[in-house]
Amino acid sequence: MKQTFIDYVKKMQNYSEALSVIYWDMRTGAPRKGLPQRAEVIGTLSADLFALQTSDELGTILQQLEPEKLDFVTRRLYEDVKESYDESKKIPADEFKAYTILKAKSEAAWEEAKAKSDYQIFLPYLKEVIDYQKKFVQYWGIKNGSAYNTLLDKYEPEMTTDVLDTLFGELKATIVPLVKAIQASPNKPDTTILFQHFPKAGQREASLEFLKQLGYDFEAGRLDETVHPFMIGLNSGDIRVTTKYDETDFRSALFGTIHECGHALYEQNIDPQLNGLPLSKGASMGIHESQSLFYENFIGRNENFWTHNFNILQKYSPTQFANVDVEDFLKAINYSEPSFIRIEADELTYPLHIMIRYEIEREIFNGDLAAEDLPNVWNDKYEQYLGIRPENDAQGILQDTHWSGGSFGYFPSYALGFMYAAQWKHAMMQDIPNFDDLCLSGNLTPIHEWLTTKVHQFGALKKPYELIQEGTGQALSAKYLTDYLQQKYKKLYQL
Ligand code: ZN
Predict the structure, then answer these.
(1) Residue 260 appears among annotated catalytic residues
(2) Domain final position from 84, 111, 141
(3) What is the pLDDT of residue 96?
């Protein structure tokens, strides 16, 4: 029975991989004229996959397995598959179908609403999506005491509003005063260097060199161009990254590439015995983001890393960087200022954008916040936390696509990822006190190996709370991130 189960799961995973290749292709330059037929292919494959995921055959296999008699890997696989099987079986098929159609309409309405900066176009769809999500939570069952906790658990297992309220409370108490002090500080770094012309071809060459420096395996991946950068893991031997080139702001390609590389290194280093199984993925959204942010912020903004690698930028955009000091470059790339758009926010203000979304989601599902009131609540919170008030819906409530597709409970992962990353860094420094020397010499292998040992190799075999507890000796804490931000920004702005 065990082998029948594994064969069945591998078949489902093969369908997923085929769909992922199509998804990657569509977002990296598939010809427009082929897309209608491609949509048919996706429809057929998705329907087949859904039938496999919810079949009576799978139900019988799961019933006949005796989990306590299985080896560790197969038992974790059983739990993973059973959880998604039960979840999809709990929603009546007709409701699931209606919801899928609604989501497609809602996403289209959101796009139009954003383009016209008019929340009213999106509102009726958003209300329906929220109603469906509330109904689904009832079908799935309340987890850890509240509706919103049920949603959080889907992205970050066992995460609750109690824990988040504490962690985010501590983070907010550090960041809000820091942002105000920086605003009031007379020390403003010169940022003109960021916006000079950097040809796309050079940015691509530089991106490839940075991937090499960071240890990305090109025999198990590739770099392509896209509109919204992402990493996609097809199987452990094919983990692709994408980036976006802006000739008047190289940061989107540079930090985008480093960020996606962090995600990719995670999946390239998962234990090969999990290849072809759904456990060959990240432990949670938050843990995945901890790897991308570790590389983006703790390596990609590290002074020694730039002392070693600044010549790459000088090589590909000499007029821009030839006469610049690394020190001035670091000040420019660490420049912090309140802004409206989450994905363009700097490292310090970014978590505030997340907390605003978290508080709103929590009140939608655990309180009685109505969809009609969201723009005002949103704008009030921006004013309160960041000291700026969006002037229109596109700049405010309509900027992110997540809610149009029903992804509630996802946003906290981004800030959790940064907290996990800071805690990994702190624990790593106990084992690798010469971290900065390694960055200076360009030998990142020990850092890479540490992360593989503590995080990467396990894939989804361990839960996020197990990884952080076992890897750092304690549960997730906000302390390491608040310490890092305090130290860094007080020094940068001489506060
Ligand atoms: Zn990411």
Answers:
(1) yes
(2) 141
(3) 87
